[in-house]
Predict the 3D structure of the following.
Amino acid sequence: MLLLIAWRNLWRHRARSLAIIFSVVLGIWAGAFLVALYYGMGRDRMRIAIREEVSHVQVHHPGFADDQDAAFHFSVDSLAVAVKEMPDLRAYSCRCVAQAMLANASGSNGVVLYGVDPEAENATRGLREMVVQGGYLTNEKSHQLMVGLKLARKMKLNAGAKVVLTFLDAQQNIVSAAFRITGIFESSNAMLDERNVYVRYDELSTLMGIEGRAHEVALLLTTDAAVPATVEALQQKLPQLLIEDWKAISPETAYIISAVGGSSRIILIIIFLALGFGIVNTMLMAVLERTREIGMLMAVGMGKGRVFAMVLLETLLLTLAGTPIGVGLSLISVSSLSKTGIDLSQVAGNMMKGFGLEAVLYPWLPVQQLGEIIVIVIITALIAAIFPAWKALTLKPAEAIRR
Amino acid sequence: MQDTVIDVHDVSKIYNPDTIPVPAVNNVHLHIRRGEFTTLVGPSGSGKTTLLNIIGGLDAPTHGRVEVNGVNITALRPNALIAFRLRNIGFVFQSFNLIPVLTARENVEFIMLLQGATREQRHRRVTELMRAVGLTDKMDARPAELSGGQQQRVAVARALASKPQFVLADEPTANLDSASASNLLDIMDKLNREENITFIFSTHDARVIERARRVITLVDGRVSSDTDRVETAHRHG
């Protein structure tokens, strides 16, 4: 009967009930959409970090990991044997790395110089697809160099221009060599476009005096889930080397992803606080309008617990009425936008690149997060109903009936 | 001799005792016996409703006590008092105060649901009561679909649903036209005579006073007269 009264009470003031239902729908939709944006951003950042920057797993000499000293290198041949045995391997790329100074007539800039095998690097990092001017590294010409778009703009570089790279070899001797820019690339991370430059592995390893050896090997796997097992297997095979997953190599990316949950929760709290105040206001109005009726119920013997439960039940029913609509709307909008994406190139394209993100965002709403939002909405509604329900309890039947 | 249902012992009620004290009821002693048809009368502000509320456990006296069937209800804790009201006291209010979202049948049934009566018990009792108040054809009507008189008859049925020790009716005819008031009084009179149900009214209405068999007059919160018309009639032969 309590349920029946609560349900019928909802429809006494349709407009008011619909206002609460609408608030719940809006709250769930806004919450879910924002969470989806955050999670989509986190997922995009992780995808970009793995696909374009650090790959799933990297191998270094333990000394190199500490201070990027070119003296810490290892044999490529023995490592290649171990790497190729990894069951989930999609591609790998051996690199030699040097901290270098790039100079031309307009100035100089510090860069990280990578010596890469063009095909292996493309398979691992997709560098060829990032070329926006000129061409990709080839084995036909010598002393080719690829620079990022941001660096090219900063130093007024074009394809075909000549620059001088100065760096230390493995014996700490200063080496200078002239390179011609064969192509300019643009990745999703503007900071890396300013910092990373690429030449052929065979040329750089010769210049550094480490032929057949490398400073870094990056492995791209078939799935993200294979990372822990691959790290463990490689570490067993190569105990003298440091095997790290993408989270260890790019802790800022791991932090961004872990912060997504916390940030989205803060926004959810703000949204649901607003929803909660709306419910408090509306339910309080409902209780105050029914003062005489509630007084009568208490007079004829309806216990305080039941009166309290009645107000809570009304709020719960309103919330439950709005929840499926809000969830449906969220699923429709998120699933549609997760295919088309939200193009922010006109309003925040450069800013997105600054954060290592693409200008098109693809919202993503994990089922668990949607479940959390639904639970939070219901809890918010019940908490918000406590004050009006308590207000109902404070009514004195004798006074309430006469109002 | 009829047994006593309500004992009012030296009851006083003062509103705002700490600021501007307003005495509403002063040292009232009353004994209501089972089966009485009693009215509390008096001018506005004489304390009728306050006394009725104290007897019904809706308000607490500043001094004194009320016993219902030997239970001192003024000493009961709030939850115990609510439970006591549910099982022992029926209320009829001036403004009917039915639950607008429930039908007439559900309004009557509601009290029994609170008491934990079974579906069969509820069905039997509701049918019986709705027949007694002459509303078997309006069982499924909501209050808004009933006239004032019909709503008050449903309220009487609701008051009786819990089989209370007595029914308190605060100005039950105040919002009714003459025909409806008369009809309502006929029903309550019949229930009193045939089923020995105790009714206590507070009223200004001469039609109610006329029918009452005991009339207690309050003036300034005190009992100024208490006339048992049955005894008087016996005495006068």
Chain B has a mean pLDDT of 90. The helical segments of chain B are 48-55, 78-88, 104-115, 119-132, 148-161, 178-195, 206-211, 229-235. Chain B touches chain A through 30 residues (CB under 8 Å).
